[in-house]
Every structure is written in structure tokens, then in C-alpha cells.
Amino acid sequence: MRVLVTRALEDARLTARELARRGHEALLAPLSKIRVLDTEEPDLADVQAVIATSSNGIRAFAGRCWRKDIRVFAVGGNTAATARSAGFTQVSSAEGDSSVLAAAVCGALRPDAGALLHVTGKNRSTEMHRELAEAGFECRVWELYDVIACRRLPEQVITAFRTDAVDAVLVFSPESGRILVEALETGGVMPKCDRVVACCISKAAAVRIRDVEFGAIRIAENPTLHAVLALLDIRPGSAE
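and the corresponding C-alpha cells:
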């Protein structure tokens, strides 16, 4: 299948390699750019663990932190792999969403052992903070990057839509779904989506693309890359 990938460039390349491994062809059209914020390294003296809810967050953190022995709790396998590649030696993966991650932290750590540091993007606080606070943890937020939306599809991707050369699109967050809809509308190719399968990481992501008449909208069983890519293997006519 020819699969449109709209993630920021570094994650898009990783996704493309995984698609190729599965026998699919990736069409890269990053609709966002990651801008690392200019911040100083925080004091980690009383921090017992770092929480990472995205690969972008842990990449930015790795560039600011010399301590690679600090414990890292990652939301999923890709973020965990990014942390390990960056040199962090104590990495745990929740393999789920932020609520699963909060539960994993509560099960492994004690509130009186130190604060938690959530390395994240700008304006990306989550329900996870409330859940951790209710469990007695101090959760600090360190905003390390911002996401800049790019609302125009490359001309070659627009041509691919117009010639029915796009079979599927991956939607990894509600925000990326919103940006995708804008880009499809701006490019004048929304009517060409009626044979395209949209593979979404969550119900919330699927809701953001509901105004586009895709051939099918599929939702992953759990919020991981592998679960999203598994949607490409569903045969046409199966339960969507």
C-alpha cells in the first residue's frame, strides 16, 4: 500500500522504515516541524524519574541533560527506543496512553522518593498530571519544544491524491488529524479521499477527521505505532 505519513520529519522517517519493513511504500509529507525551545538544564537533584510522552520530548531532553542514569518512564515503545538510543540506561515503557503511563509510575515509584519531571512540548499538559497528583506525586513540567503546523501538502502528494495513488493515511494524534484536514482542504483533494483508508491511533484522533469522506476510518486497539500499522492489514470489507 502507498501510505501517507504526515508526522514531523524525524518520526516520519522512522515510520517510513517500519512501513517498508512491512512491505508498504511511504509518502512523506510532514505537516509539522519541531522547534526546540532555548531553555537551561533543570536541577535534577530531587527528581527521581523523568516522564516522556513523546519521542520529541525525550530527544530535546537528551540535548539538555548530561545525566543518562536517571530513570525514564516512556509512554510507548517508540519513545522508549528513542530514550535508549539517546543513551539513557534506565528506561521503562508503558506501551499505552498517558493513563497507562501514570499507572505504571504509581506502581513502580513512591511519592516520598522525589519529584517527577515531565519533559514535553509547549502547552501539552495532560490528565496524567492530575492522576499523579491524586496519588501524592509532585509532577513538574518542563516544556522543551513547540510544534509548528505546516498546512500545505507537497505538490507531489497532491498529485498522488489526484491520480488515486494514495491508499492510506496515518493519523497519530487529534492535533495531527486537525492539521491533515486543513491541508487536504487547502490542497483541494478532500473529494479524492473516498478510496483512502485512515488509520487512527485513537477515537479522539478519528473524531478530528470525521468531516472527510474517507473510504474507511479505522481505530487502533491500543495507542502504539504497531497497532496503527496493523490496521493496514485489515482486508477490505472486514469490520471497520
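(Above: one complete record from the training split.) Residues 9-21 form the longest helix (13 residues).
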